[in-house]
Amino acid sequence: MTGHYPAPETLSPDDFTFILSRLRLLLDNLPDAVPSYGNKSERFAMFLVQPDKFVLDPDWMEKTECEVSTLSEMLLLRTDSNIF
Fold this sequence. Notes:
Blueprint: H1 13-28, H2 58-64, H3 67-76
Helix pairs in contact: 2-3
């Protein structure tokens, strides 16, 4: 499975296990602190905007056709390690 996740009710046990393990990896690697809105020096600065101003990358949306996958790809671009 890459990019687009199927509807939950159609997941095979292997697909479900893969998604859960990826979610566990994301949760285990959350930052210790949440940066403030005004700090643009952070590598996640594009996410530090008022919620009504945040937009998903349209190029990734076109590629993945999935909001969750797009957000995941946007986050992956800002990590220093290759955790996936």
